[in-house]
Amino acid sequence: MFSWASKNGRKKDPELFQTVSDGLRRLYRTKLFPLEEAYRYHDFHSPALEDADFDNKPMVLLVGQYSTGKTTFIRHLMEQDFPGMRIGPEPTTDSFIAVMHGEQDGLIPGNALVVDPKKPFRKLNAFGNAFLNRFICAQMPNPVLESISIIDTPGILSGEKQRISRGYDFAAVLEWFAERVDRIVLLFDAHKLDISDEFSEVIRALKNHEDKMRVVLNKADQIGTQQLMRVYGALMWSLGKIVNTPEVVRVYIGSFWAQPLLVPDNRKLFEAEEQDLFRDIQSLPRNAALRKLNDLIKRARLAKVQAYIISSLKREMPNMFGKENKKKELIANLGEIYLRIEKEHQISPGDFPKLSKMQEILAGQDFTKFQSIKPKLLEAVEDMLANDIAKLMTLVRQEEASMPSQSVQGGAFEGSMNGPFGHGYGEGAGEGIDELEWIVARDKPTYDEIFYTLSPVNGKVSGAMAKKEMVKSKLPNTVLGKIWKLADVDGDGFLDDDEFALANHLIKVKLEGHELPADLPEHLVPPTKRQQE
């Protein structure tokens, strides 16, 4: 029945995989796809994967209510307008826009996009013309887009507007994208925290992809610190009611556009949050292969459960009479079938598809055409999970090691990393980096007074004497030990007056909430020690 089954049943040699993408593609085609096809996985859950799904760049999906700054966020990242971009306080973006790299600026309409084998969107044709007329690809040369693609989405409606039908299943389209993207960014406006019914439905549709989800509280510069605390608390409370997980969702607070801050009180907080989010996005190319591997494993687990469900329903069906009544009975008792499969095959309850969704789809299926259980198909997937995936994991690490600097470059990512406007530049241990004078010298007279009360011998104090003074900072011994190691520049086990001053300066840095450097920066080395180095 399947061409792969006629070739002998020997295991594929994982050594033959040249790249992770090549390995994933071949494992999917030879081992997982036959199981999906036999038990109608594509009718129930997700269309079959294509070559472009394994080769495409990491994608970032932006989701949020209208006027939360989704399109502005993309423009901020790229520092450039993109074709088809519209920004305004009203619901302006009425289409899904895939912003991708191209040699020239241009727009590709949805119907042309879904027939392009090089793009990972071919299976979107299942959503029909109502959706495809609202789907375009904006291509442009931009260094950010050389590493990632960004999907802009229509603003989620609220109030009376959400009662108007879009003509396609908006939540289902977002769920399709969520399965294939590497990061989902939910944007909220600090002034509009109400989560509409459509937004709630969308967040629930993304339920199985919490690991990809990041929440951004945008336009936070428009309110003061006290209001920001209240808004943040209200957002966490609202999300807690919809995202039913014990973990708290990570929320990034900031103002993601290139305009002056209206209320600059929280500038440092916004800079730190922006850097955290940028680092997360920059890591996507490096982790893309691992994400695809993870998604294939999730898909394989669901495909196995699908096979058990379909074969169980087939086994229960009568051969001759009463098929329709039996079908209704089986759908009504699907929860009991879940429990039986769970116990029989030791499957976690979290691996089962949503009960109500399965019952709804099963109502339109012909149970007589379902397949009985085929052990060989299941064994192939088990072998893939037990052996081939482990070999691919090794290949993932090898690829990561060979491309250690693979990250998103250009746009807003360039301006925030280096130079005096990089986050944390000239602060903490970096203070005084551009000054000719040794920064520790400013407070050295105070430190010298303490130093000479410790009765130095030959101009130096021992570790035991220095410890008596250093522990007064109440810092843990692990931190004080690191400070001692950094301050003992010549490594003789004693501290002279310069080194003692340096130790106190590093204690001050730590007490002010900054991190200690792994190695002592050049500008902190005492001038008397610089010739020795």
TrEMBL record:
InterPro entries, A to Z: DUF5600, Dynamin_N, EF-hand-dom_pair, EF_Hand_1_Ca_BS, EF_hand_dom, EH_dom, EHD_N, G_DYNAMIN_dom
Keywords tagged on the record: Acetylation, ATP-binding, Calcium, Cell membrane, Cell projection, Cilium, Cilium biogenesis/degradation, Coiled coil, Endosome, GTP-binding, Membrane, Metal-binding, Nucleotide-binding, Phosphoprotein, Protein transport, Transport
Membrane topology: Peripheral membrane protein
Segments forming domain EH: 443-531
One Gene Ontology MF term: calcium ion binding
Keyword Coiled coil on entry: yes
Taxonomy, superkingdom: Eukaryota
Residues of the Dynamin-type G domain: 54-285
GO biological process, alphabetically ordered: endocytosis; endosomal transport
Cellular compartments per GO CC: plasma membrane; recycling endosome membrane
Subcellular location: Cell projection, Cilium membrane; Early endosome membrane; Recycling endosome membrane
Quaternary assembly: Homooligomer, and heterooligomer with EHD2, EHD3 and EHD4, ATP-binding is required for heterooligomerization. Interacts (via EH domain) with MICALL1 (via NPF1 motif); the interaction is direct and recruits EHD1 to membranes. Interacts with RAB35; the interaction is indirect through MICALL1 and recruits EHD1 to membranes. Interacts (via EH domain) with PACSIN2 (via NPF motifs); regulates localization to tubular recycling endosome membranes. Interacts with PACSIN1. Interacts with RAB8A. Interacts with FER1L5 (via second C2 domain). Interacts with MYOF. Interacts with ZFYVE20.
Protein name: EH domain-containing protein 1
Species lineage: Eukaryota, Metazoa, Chordata, Craniata, Vertebrata
